[in-house]
Every structure is written in C-alpha cells, then in structure tokens.
Amino acid sequence: MTTLAITGATGALGRLVVADLLESGTAPDEVVAVVRNPAKAASLAEQGVTVREADYADPAALRTALEGVERLLLISGDAVGARVEQHTNVIEAARDAGVAHIVYTSILNADASSNPLADEHIATEKVLAASGVAHTVLRNAWYSENYTTQLPQYLATGEILSATDDAPISAAARADFAAAAVGALRSAGAESRTFELGGPAFTLTELAEAITEATGTTVVHRVVSADELVATMTSDGQDATWPNIQARVDRSIAAGEMHTDSKALEELMGHAPTTITEVVRAAV
Ligand code: NAP
C-alpha cells in the first residue's frame, strides 16, 4: 500500500486528480486529501478518501497531516505573493514527516520565463531542490479553460483581444494536467525529474476560428500592443493592476514562453491530450 497525499484537493485541479486516481484503480484508503476547509471535502470523505485539515500557513498542522504519506502532490496555492512561504511550509513538513517524493505543479518554462507568475514557482523549485527530498516538477502550461471560461465575453464582443502577437500557446485541458499528475505520482521513484507539460499548440486566431465553428458566431483575434491592451481594458474605468499583469503575460506568450514541443504530458497521461477544438466544443 502506497499512501498518496494531495494538497489543494478541494480545488479544481485537486478534485480531478483524486477522481482520476480512484477511477484508475487506486484504493480510496490510499488517498489522503489535505484541505484547509474540510466542509468542502464532504464528497471526498464519502468516497472513502482520508481528509486531513491543514492550511499552507500552518506548519504544525501540515506536519501532522503528512504523517505516513509516501508520495505527495503539492498543488501550488492561489495566494500570489504568499506562495513561496506557503510552499516552503509544505515541503519542510513533508521532509520532516518522511515523505519519500514530492510532486509540485509549477509553470511552463519556469526558469526562462518573463511571465510575472513564474518567480514564485522558480523560488519553490529551488526550495524543493534544497530539501533533499526526491521530487518531480510538473511545469504546467496554461489551462485551456483559462480561455473557455471567457467564452461569454468573446461571443458578446466578437473578438479575443491580446498582445500575444498570435504566438502559439501549448495550453491543455485541466483534466489532462490532472491525469499527468497521477502518472507522475505513480511513477515517482528515488530520482528527481522536471517535465515541461503542454498540449497541442494553438494561436488565439485558431482559438477564435474554433469558437466561430462551434457556435456559429463570428469571433476574431485582434492583436494589439501591450499599451493598447491596457488602454482598452481600462477604458471603462477598471483599475490598471490586472490589465498590466495581463499585458506582461501576453508579452511572455509573444516571446514563445507558453509554448513547448515536449511530449511529456502525453507520456505521463498515457494517451493523447485533448485538443483546443474539443475543449471549446465541450464548453459550448
Ligand atoms: P483552484 O481551484 O483555485 O485551487 C487552489 C487550491 O489551493 C484550492 O483547493 C485551495 O483551497 C488551495 N489553497 C489555497 N490556499 C491555500 C492555503 N493557504 N492552504 C491550503 N490550501 C490552500 O486552482 P486550480 O485550478 O485547482 O489550479 C491549481 C493551482 O494551479 C492554482 O492554485 C494556481 O497555483 C495554479 N493555476 C494554474 C493555472 C494554469 O493555467 N496553469 C491557472 C490558474 C491557477 P480551497 O479549496 O479551500 O479554496
């Protein structure tokens, strides 16, 4: 029996990981869901999964929650700015509890990316490397759902606005990243590994074409400069904080930093990733 723990198990990715583990034959009593709010984990407990409470800010609770765990999936938190300290707490607790292998969800091309979200992932990767615990870094590209959740806006305006220069994006479905995380947990051993994970690349023009085809409503990709993007996004009085981050993210994409030719996603999943056309059709 190998005890596997998943942090962030009540989040979107974490729920998919637990579901994939159970569907693909892992016994529920081998799965520990580490959550900050057990009330959100009732359905996991009903399936026989062990639910343990620990916030990333609470080292003692993390240490207790990881007792007896052999392999851990540390799903990166969402509190931008606080994540290095939070992830360090989890990694140190895992080391102290004797966890043999930590799998961590990072960002694509983390060590060569100007994406404003990459800094905390790189810092976490360094903490992992210094921990002495064997680890697997899953450098996940964007979720395709980052785009499909914006479908209502695309359809209402008839356009996707970006400063990406229509560069290719190796996004993949969240469920595919979950399946890859399961593959990484199952194959984890004594060696440390880093995988660049991305799906079949598409441009936002190709995304617009897929949306047009699936909905019958014409959507186009309008490429603008970073300054024009910020100006357009703030024209209704919106604060510039998010538009400025969006502009930096888009320039990172334009530089090719959200693209990979790596086939590691497919290899860890054991089958071909979902295409953006399929994700769009499902979302529609
Ligand atoms: P999500 O649904 O927001 O899940 C985040 C999970 O982290 C939730 O379960 C949340 O707990 C947990 N969490 C946050 N702060 C915590 C804390 N202080 N202590 C314990 N748990 C904490 O995000 P997701 O879609 O599953 O994605 C997983 C992670 O990938 C995100 O957190 C983020 O780092 C990253 N991400 C990647 C992309 C991408 O495109 N690749 C996009 C968005 C995010 P609750 O369930 O209690 O809220």
TrEMBL record:
Name of the protein this chain belongs to: SDR family oxidoreductase
Domain (NAD(P)-binding): residue spans on this chain: 8-185
Organism domain of life: Bacteria
